[in-house]
Amino acid sequence: MTIHPKLLHVPKHQRDNMVGATLSDSLRQQYKRRSARVIKGDSVKVMRGEYKGVEGKVDKVNTIEGTLEIEGIQREKVRGGQVKVPIHASNVMITGLKTDDKYRSAMLSGQKQQAAPKKEKKAEAKPEAEAKPKAAKAAKKEKKEEETS
């Protein structure tokens, strides 16, 4: 399978969107979304092609070609042995999501990831902090003047 020449230099964040698949009806109702990006560990069902109806977990995601390797989908080589068959992401439906990642689960549920609250500096504390070193410097200056005189 060859890649389209226009897709050779597409940035990763745009290629990731091309590895999306539709969600099953139960997941659509739960997350109120139509599709999601497929990642390793998701459970999918093949909806089109030679392997239609086969379910399995995603073993590998190829973002350059937009394909998935699913466990249980293999083809026999001419000289013997088995090779995994790449299935395009648009031909599968996600039946189970891997939600170990906090960021992914927050994105799916529609919540924004909140950053840690920043500490606000008090404007009143600055003059006091600056006043103390100035007072200390003035005291040292006075001591030196007393010693020299």
Short description:
Part of the 50S ribosomal subunit. With 149 residues, the chain is of the alpha+beta class.
Low-confidence stretches: none
Order of helix and strand elements from N to C terminus: HEHEEEEEEHH
Mean pLDDT across all amino acids? 84
The proportion of residues in beta strands is 25-35%
Q: In the CATH hierarchy, what is the architecture of the domain at 12-109 at level 2? A: Roll
Query: Could you name the CATH topology of the domain at 12-109?
Result: SH3 type barrels
CATH class (first level) name of the domain at 12-109: Mainly Beta
Assign an overall shape: elongated
How would a crystallographer describe the biggest sheet?
Answer: 7 strands, mixed
**Sequence of strands across the biggest β-sheet:** 2-1-7-3-4-5-6
Distance between the termini: 93 Å
Q: How many β-strands, per DSSP?
A: 7
Q: Give the helix proportion (percent range).
A: 25-40%
* Rg value: 30 Å
The helix-and-strand class reads alpha+beta
Family: Belongs to the universal ribosomal protein uL24 family.
GO molecular function: rRNA binding; structural constituent of ribosome
InterPro entries: KOW, Rib_uL2_dom2, Ribosomal_uL24_CS, Ribosomal_uL24_euk/arc, Ribosomal_uL24_KOW, Translation_prot_SH3-like_sf
Biased composition (Basic and acidic residues): 117-133
